Here is the input.
Amino acid sequence: MYQPAIRGTGVFVPPEVLTNEELVAAYNRHADWFNAENAAAIAAGTVAAKEHSSPEFIFKASGILQRYVLTKDGLLDPARMYPRFRQRSDDEPSLMAEIALKAAEVALAKAGVAPGEIDLVICAASNMERPYPAIAIEIQNLLGAGGFAFDMNVACSSATFGIQAASDMIRAGTVRNALVVNPEITSGHLEWRDRDCHFIFGDVCTATVLGRAEDATAAHFKIRSCRCATEFSNNIRNNNGFLRRSRPDGMADRRDMQFVQEGRKVFKEVVPLVSAHILAHLAAEGTSAAALKRLWLHQANKGMNDLIGRKVLGHDPLPGETPNVLQEFANTSSAGSIIAFDRSSDAMAAGDLGLICSFGAGYSVGSVLLERA
Ligand code: CO8
Here is the structure.
């Protein structure tokens, strides 16, 4: 058995910033356009008119001020409201592989690991650009890594479930060094035309290099243990899939072909689920929340994280105890807790404990207990 460790992380930040003000202006233009296009049906009561969104509501309800997107092209067009990416040929890197390589380069440099030393690549994300060949195998090839690679999807918990899989394989000796990448192009299936959720997500890619603690030359985090849990819920759902064209309404522009959620229910059900999960994980490790220097939580909602922080720590989180990156990045699905970790783990001292915890659709919860070495 070997001691697994996180040896380095990297974040690729997309080039374009979309502030709440710009987003809301675009949404409101869309609402006006929609209401004009559907004036007769709205007057007849068969279609509901769209109300305006507001930056004040967005910040108050979520803590989000802006998000990064790979492109604004298409997003600000009132009659379209989804991104426009150019068609790539099969001989070019896919968009997910391209941003994964950018995040991976940073993580590998920090870890001091050469691409050829990686013998496992996991591409863990909420969506895959195609079903096959696996994006992870494409990344393995572009990097010049060895071993094997596979894709996995556990929505917002993809990163922590990926870390758990890689960490167990390192512990067992199946692989020596692993790369877990989380290219989250959430703009692709966010419903930008829905006032209830148009502000939630942003694009990003994170990468985590894992290996044996004994190989680490720079500061690293020993993985004490991981704990994953799932519990079925329809409260966050997307019905798009490979059987789409076989169904009666085929490729119709249906609302449920994008991200749909019952946000209030998610908030109420997930907060106790996650708090209990973290406390049980710490107890199983023979430790307690009092020993934690940092709680790097999934970044979906600031209020939700304040509440989980309070339930787990037993007090209002002090500045820096539950780092928040939502205001800058919005919800970046599985990448959120890894961005928080990447941004605020340097200041920790040898022996300090911290816990990464993701949660989201499924429901799924994944926690990783770390010790700074
Ligand atoms: N502007 C102005 N007013 C608005 C807006 C808006 N944009 N939207 C809603 N309102 C109004 C509503 O109409 C409502 O009005 P009224 O009280 O008159 O009915 C009022 O504001 C309150 O609305 P809500 O109850 O909906 O607002 P909440 O306070 O509940 O906030 C949130 C909504 C922010 C969505 C909140 O419920 C939340 O964050 N919940 C948690 C959600 C969560 O954590 N989800 C996890 C999803 S992420 C995940 O798992 C990954 C999925 C896969 C990846 C997908 C990638 C795209």
User: Anything to note?
Assistant: The pocket of octanoyl-coenzyme A is lined by residues 53-54, 57-58, 61-62, 126, 155-156, 186, 189-190, 195-196, 201, 236, 259, 261, 263-264, 266-267, 300-301, 304, 331, 333, 360-361 (CB under 6 Å).
